[in-house]
Amino acid sequence: MNTDVRRTLPATAIPDGCLPWSTEETRRWTRELPPAWIPVRWAGLSVYQLVWLTGVLAALGLIWAGVPPYLAAPAALHLVWLPLRPEIVRVSAPVLALVTAAVRPEPVVPVLAGAFLLTAVSLTVSELRLRARQRQREAAVAAASGVTAVLPDADQPLGRGRILCGLGIVLIVLVAAGVPLTAAIGMWDTSEGRRFVAVAGLYVTGLGVTALLSGVLGRRRAVALRAAPAPVLRVLVREDRRVDAEVYAADDVAGLRPLFTVATVRLDPDTDGGTDDGEAELDAFFEQLDDDKRRPKPLREAVLYGAPYDGAEVVLVSAARKQGDPPVAERSTGPVRPLPAVAVRWRLRVAKRQAAWTAADDERHRGLVAAALLTTETVPVRRWRAGALDRLSAFLMVPAGVFLCWMVFTDRDGDLWQQFLCFLGGLYGAFRIPVKLCWRITADRTGLWLNSLRGTTHIPWDDVRSVRRQVFELKLRWSGGESWAVSAFSWAWYQRRRGLTHPYDALAAELSAMHADPALRPTGDSEERERGRPLWPLGVPLAVLWVAGALVALVSSGVW
After folding, report:
1. Which helix (H) or strand (E) holds 139?
2. Looking at residue 260, what DSSP letter applies?
3. Angle subtended at Cα 70 by Cα 64 and Cα 71, rounded to the nearest 5 degrees
4. Are 430 and 546 in contact (CB under 8 A)?
5. Cβ pair 334, 85 in contact under 8 A
6. φ, ψ (nearest 5 deg) of residue 523
7. Of the candidates 325, 219, 232, which has an alpha carbon nearest to the alpha carbon of residue 277?
8. N or C: which end of the chain has fewer CB within 10 A?
9. Exposed (0-12), middle (13-18) or buried (19+): which is 448, by Cβ within 10 Å?
10. Is the peptide bond preceding residue 107 cis, with omega within 30 degrees of 0?
11. What is the CB-side half-sphere exposure of residue 368 using CA atoms within 13 A?
12. Is residue 492 left, alpha or beta, with left meaning phi > 0 and alpha meaning psi from -120 to 50?
């Protein structure tokens, strides 16, 4: 392979005869992708966001339009199934059309037209995508030229699919148990409430079926991949900002055209293999975005086991992230997700924009840290606490929440579930306000002390990783993946125009300077009273006031 790649793969890790998947060969593979308008992968939209978006669409738009719940929920679920599980659409779309034609709900013409339009579009999209899969697989197999190899984890137990199957069963059981419960406690007092709960139940059941089927299909494909020697190709790989594997052509040393991404977990021969990919598989299904500003990782040489296509299972053996370490073997915990040309262009634009923002933010932070290195004085103990912006955030949070909940509590036609959700939101706010008003960071010679609802946390100086403001949040991270955060208003445009420094930026700069230069750190030991106290006692009277106010609102309005 190319010698100008930063991380090279030892020859002993490359199967005999394994060919590089060159840019010329990958062009044939990318030409077999579905048309750009097919939602193979929706750029910038995570599965979490997709699920909530379609759920809101079903609960609000379709219900208010008069569509019955048993049609509204499946219609919205099609927007989840098209990018995630097109296999379901082959069955669900015709069934939805037949049920709509048989029931003919009011208003008949708009509902029938919408159902048949949705069926036609869904079937077209799913068929185009499923047929493209076969062409992608054939192109990858042709590029391997018949060279195959046994997978490195072929003799290990396979845990693929267990977590998703369990999640699907749990969701379905919860809905089945929740229906009689909500009916018994009177949450279906109005027709609108009954329709909303029905849509929510059907929608969650559909998500359960989706997770269950995803687990079953993932396991079947993973087992089939290990049933015989698999095609192998030499590629380049690196982690993307989601910490998924991002695969490139073997000669694309500049990393210009990613081919696909796939969530992976490292193989560990010392484990039983049954649980090592469970948590990672669940993360892959929901695709939570990491909030760290991750910069591009160096490309590493790798061997790809299995013919990649949209939805495939693969195994990667790549060069170690650190020189001198052995190669890294990883199995997929989610399906292969191709990157169409439009998605690549979008990613490039986003990467350039984020790089510019990150560079400007880093430059501003470096300037503040440099100033702090010159101006920070050594003191026995240093403290920071909530300021004017924190108090303003808390002040605006209270009337907005009280007004919203008062409207719900005094609505005679409101449902019990709405009042219950507002009540829980008020309790959350009652314990969140003390954090916004009374947070404190104390620095002494041993490290940092943070107060929170439950108590005080001590972080030694050597464990501190970073302190930065991210939009509205001041976030402090330390070893072990732990973090602490508070939030307040931030208006970047106004700050730049007026030449102002956000208090969180100044705090982050001072702490960063102390972390970088031990001579600037405090020299004394803080006393217990200086470190702040647990904040939950401050939330108790606010919670009591909230409960009393909610009862007064319910009684005075005649709801109870």
Report:
1. helix 108-144
2. E
3. 65
4. yes
5. no
6. -105, -10
7. 219
8. C
9. buried
10. yes
11. 23
12. alpha
Residue 88 token pair = 């379901």
Starting at the edge strand found earlier in the chain, the sheet holding 456-460 runs 382-385, 440-444, 447-451, 456-460
pLDDT tens, position by position, for the chain (560 residues)?
A: 444 456 788 888 999 999 999 999 999 999 998 887 776 765 455 665 666 666 666 666 666 666 777 888 888 888 888 888 899 999 999 998 898 888 887 777 877 887 888 889 889 989 999 999 999 999 999 999 999 999 998 888 888 888 889 888 998 888 877 666 555 545 555 566 677 777 778 888 888 999 999 999 999 999 999 999 999 999 999 987 667 899 999 999 988 899 999 988 888 644 333 444 554 544 444 443 343 444 567 899 999 999 999 999 999 999 987 777 889 999 998 899 998 887 778 777 877 787 787 788 888 888 899 998 888 888 999 999 998 888 888 888 888 777 777 777 776 666 666 777 788 888 888 888 999 899 999 999 999 999 888 888 999 999 998 899 887 888 899 987 688 888 887 877 777 788 888 899 999 999 999 998 999 999 999 888 888 888 889 989 988 988 888 787 767 666 55
Q: Which residue has the tokens 């197999």?
A: 141
Q: Where are the alpha helices (DSSP H) in 35-107?
A: 47-56, 63-64, 69-84, 86-103
In the structure encoding, which two tokens stand for residue 34, read together? 């579905």
| Closest residue by Cα to residue 507 from 452, 469, 451, 472 | 469
Q: Are 512 and 365 in contact (CB under 8 A)?
A: yes
Whole-angstrom distance, CA of residue 20 vs CA of residue 256: 17
DSSP character string of 377-419: PP-S-EEEE--HHHHHHHHHHHHHHHHHHHHHHT-TT--HHHH
Q: Cα-flanking dihedrals φ and ψ of residue 340, to 5°?
A: -65, 165
Structure tokens at 64: 């208010």
Q: Could you tell me how far CA 269 lies from the centroid of its own chain?
A: 29
And the tokens for 384?
A: 């920071």
Question: Quick check: 57 and 74 in contact, CB under 8 A?
Answer: no
Q: Given the structure tokens 């892959």, which residue do they identify?
A: 284
Give kind and range of the element (H or E) at residue 26.
Answer: helix 23-31
Can you name the residues that pair with 301 across neighbouring β-strands?
A: 236
Residue 473 tokens, joined: 């949040």
* Residue 530: CB atoms within 10 Å: 13
Residue 363 falls in which region: left (phi positive, over 0), alpha (psi -120 to 50) or beta: alpha
How big is the CA angle at 475 (ends 477 and 438), to the nearest 5 degrees?
A: 115
- Residue whose C-alpha is closest to residue 319's, from 10, 1, 2: 10
- C-alpha dihedral over 264, 268, 271, 275, to 10 degrees? 0
Antiparallel, parallel or unpaired: β 300-305 and 260-262: unpaired
Model pLDDT for residues 263-283, shown as the tens digit of each residue: 888 886 443 334 445 545 444
Q: Are the C-beta atoms of 359 and 285 separated by less than 8 Å?
A: no
Using one digit for the tens of pLDDT, what is the confidence trace for 350-406?
A: 777 877 877 888 888 888 999 988 888 889 999 999 988 888 888 888 887 777 777
Q: How far apart are CA 82 and CA 63, in angstroms?
A: 22
